[in-house]
Design brief:
Largest sheet: 6 strands, mixed
CATH class of the largest domain: Alpha Beta
Order of helices and strands: EEEEEEEEHHEHHEHEHEHEEHEEEHHHHH
Number of strands: 17
CATH topology of the largest domain: Ubiquitin-like (UB roll)
CATH architecture of the largest domain: Roll
């Protein structure tokens, strides 16, 4: 096996708890009524293009992206549009949603539903980007940044390496792991598609070495694929962060305020890469994804292939139901995921997992005074001073927070995890980022 690489600065190693790693992907049917949010991505909201009472098919456009940094939304089910209304999503706010009463499973005939592997890539670079954009594909590792934007390398910049993120460093989550094991051949074609779109000849699949079966499987599948290699990585959180993964694999460091393409790299998650394969080779928009449902008290930790819009309560029921000792339900992993107050909220393009936390682990410990131990500084993968950034948030010194590079924070939560005083460091840093972001936008508008 190759030498293990990792990023050099900061990081932690929380217990992994990959309870569902051995659970094959199950397709979860959906019935009844679903709500499809028109905002499932970073950027401008999509605008509904269907009306109440309209019959829709699986794959039909429901909402069209309204700008370059936006994403289309398609019908994951067939049936009748009940209404367009505001419904709660994972943010805790009501968002515009297309509500559909399901009737059968009637698909757009342009979508190839066969399981035949289509290896030959006939689409041109421009056609690939156009298909990816039309399909509404976004980053499926949780960032939900529109994928076509990352494939359009800005003028004056050039990418020379594509990095495929198979790290899945969040504890508990195994959706990407199972995808690599069960959909590896399609994934490899998806990598070749993205390489063609970016005009690069080198692609590296980064996988942490707690997934030796995925490393072995993809190493065999790429043995005869020119330019594609697998790089085993040392287990360390948050190695799935773009900047950390680029540093680990290439040794290049993305500058403060910069983008991966500034150092010639573009990073895509394995789920995003599979979606690109399906869009280009099968004419299939992003209407479903793999979601891990897990937790220490969950009867059947599982990985489900589910349609967008499926209520998370249906996933929990399929995994054996809500345990009696449940204290908190989190969408995503325990480090970066966010707790939800309702179980009828829908799965979206960015839903990687549903984590059920027992009551005895769900409550925060009392906050103690900072003891100036600097552990938060030592684990910050971005080289920031979280204790200072928290204080700046408490005292609303947002200009200084900007000078202290608060916008470089990737919100990994390593600082809060390691703090012996249980201080809510990340909560205040998020407040800093919100206020500093507002300042930056106002300054840009004033300069116009």
């Amino acid at each position: 096996m190759q030498k293990l690489k990792t990023f050099p600065k900061g990081g932690v190693h929380p217990p992994e708890h990959k309870l569902s790693a051995g659970s094959p992907i199950e397709t979860l049917p959906v019935s009844g009524r679903v709500a499809i949010p028109v905002v499932q991505h970073l950027g401008a909201p999509a605008e509904p293009v269907v009306q109440r009472g309209e019959e829709v098919k699986v794959g039909q456009l429901l909402a069209k992206g309204t700008g370059f940094v936006s994403a289309n939304v398609h019908a994951p089910v067939s049936g009748k549009v009940f209404r367009i209304d505001k419904k709660f999503d994972a943010s805790g706010y009501k968002r515009t949603s297309v509500i559909i009463d399901i009737n059968g499973d009637d698909w757009d005939p342009e979508i190839d539903r066969s399981t035949t592997l289509r290896k030959e890539i006939t689409a041109s670079r421009e056609e690939i980007i156009e298909k990816v954009q039309a399909a509404g594909i976004v980053g499926m590792g949780g960032a939900t940044f529109p994928t076509h934007v990352k494939l359009n390398v800005p003028r004056g910049k050039k990418a020379d390496i594509l990095i495929i993120n198979g790290v899945e460093c969040e504890p508990f989550l195994t959706a990407d792991h199972r995808l690599m094991l069960e959909r590896g051949e399609e994934l490899v074609v998806g990598i070749r598609i993205l390489m063609k779109a970016l005009a690069v000849t080198t692609a590296v699949i980064g996988i942490e070495n707690n997934k030796p079966d995925a490393i072995d499987h993809l190493t065999k599948l790429t043995a005869d694929e020119p330019g594609i290699t697998v790089q085993p990585l040392k287990v360390k959180y948050p190695q799935g962060g773009e900047k950390q993964l680029i540093k680990a694999i290439t040794g290049r460091e993305v500058p403060s305020g910069g983008l991966p393409v500034d150092v010639g790299a573009v990073v895509h998650n394995v789920g995003t890469t599979l979606a690109a394969y399906e869009a280009v080779q099968k004419n299939k928009p992003l209407i479903e994804r793999i979601v891990t449902v897990t937790g220490k008290s969950v009867a059947k930790p599982s990985n489900f292939l589910v349609r967008i819009g499926t209520p998370i309560s249906a996933l929990i029921d399929a995994a054996g139901g809500l345990p009696e000792d449940t204290g908190k339900v989190v969408l995503g992993g325990p480090m970066m995921g966010k707790a939800v107050s309702k179980l009828d909220i829908p799965v979206t393009k960015g839903t990687s997992g549903v984590l059920i936390i027992p009551d005895n682990e769900a409550h925060r410990a009392p906050v103690e005074p900072c003891i100036r131990c600097a552990k938060c500084v030592s684990v910050c993968p971005m080289g920031l001073e979280p204790y200072l950034l928290m204080d700046l948030g408490v005292y609303e010194k947002f200009e200084r927070a900007q000078n202290e590079r608060v916008m470089d924070c990737i919100e990994c939560g390593s600082c809060s995890y390691i703090c012996p005083a249980d201080r809510p460091l990340l909560d205040y840093i998020r407040l800093d980022k919100l206020r500093v972001g507002e300042m930056i936008r106002k300054a840009r508008q004033a300069a116009k």
